[in-house]
UniProtKB/TrEMBL annotation:
<protein>
    <submittedName>
        <fullName>DUF402 domain-containing protein</fullName>
    </submittedName>
</protein>
<dbReference type="InterPro" id="IPR007295">
    <property type="entry name" value="DUF402"/>
</dbReference>
<feature type="domain" description="DUF402">
    <location>
        <begin position="61"/>
        <end position="181"/>
    </location>
</feature>
<dbReference type="Pfam" id="PF04167">
    <property type="entry name" value="DUF402"/>
</dbReference>
<keyword id="KW-0378">Hydrolase</keyword>
<dbReference type="InterPro" id="IPR050212">
    <property type="entry name" value="Ntdp-like"/>
</dbReference>
<dbReference type="InterPro" id="IPR035930">
    <property type="entry name" value="FomD-like_sf"/>
</dbReference>
<feature type="region of interest" description="Disordered">
    <location>
        <begin position="182"/>
        <end position="217"/>
    </location>
</feature>
Length: 217
């Protein structure tokens, strides 16, 4: 069990590590629970984060697929948009599960973010984004997301073939759980509401880069 463990209500920062070891995005999470091996954290809609863009100012989605993982990236101030997310982050798993909630608090679906675990620091968990993901829709099964991006990432050296194979196997494992309606896809946390006394999580002052803000991916 890790020496780093956080109490409910604390803020931690989930960091996404690039292949060269540099840190890309920073997402502040309000801790819901943590047993020292699995963190459950809350990132509400509208929370300021550290995002990333291509060095020329384009978002990743604005760049052609063949450029997305070859052009240099910079960190920029961003806002978490679209949905609020509850994240289940097991230290050793090659995935985290995100519950997506609409602005009115209604649960929408699950997002399985395939990732390479990099342990914990005193400020939060470190992960490498695995590009390939799953979307699990209640009553409608699951599907892969961003398969084309994952292949492009391998071609660009952003991921290795072995890493993608492991990520895909993890996706198959999580998809099988979804098909059975097993935890975490059994309805647990779909009625989640944050403690009304919690303010939105904030980034530490030293992690707030200067520059124009834009919506996060």
């Amino acid at each position: 069990m890790t020496e780093h463990r956080w109490a409910p209500g604390q803020t931690v920062v989930e960091r996404f590590v690039r292949p060269d070891g540099s840190i890309g995005q920073h997402h502040p999470l309000r801790v819901v629970s943590d047993d020292g091996e699995t963190l459950l954290g809350w990132l509400p809609l509208g929370t300021p984060i550290v995002g990333s863009r291509l060095a020329d100012g384009r978002s990743l989605r604005e760049a052609p697929l063949e450029q997305r993982f070859r052009e240099p990236r910079v960190r920029v101030p961003d806002i978490w948009h679209g949905t609020s997310t509850l994240r289940l982050i097991p230290d050793d798993a090659w995935s985290s599960v995100w519950w997506f909630f609409e602005a009115d608090g209604r649960f929408r679906d699950w997002y399985v973010n395939l990732e390479i675990p990099r342990g914990r620091t005193e400020t939060g968990p470190d992960r490498v984004d695995g590009i390939l993901d799953l979307v699990v829709t209640p009553g409608a099964g699951w599907k892969w997301k961003d398969e084309d991006e994952a292949e492009a990432a391998v071609e660009a050296g952003r991921l290795t073939t072995a890493e993608l194979d492991t990520l895909r196997a993890e996706g198959e494992r999580m998809g099988a759980l979804a098909e059975r309606g097993a935890y975490p896809f059994d309805g647990t946390h779909t009625d989640f509401r944050p403690d009304p006394g919690w303010p939105a999580p904030e980034l530490p002052a030293g992690l707030r880069p200067t520059g124009p803000a834009g919506p996060a991916r």
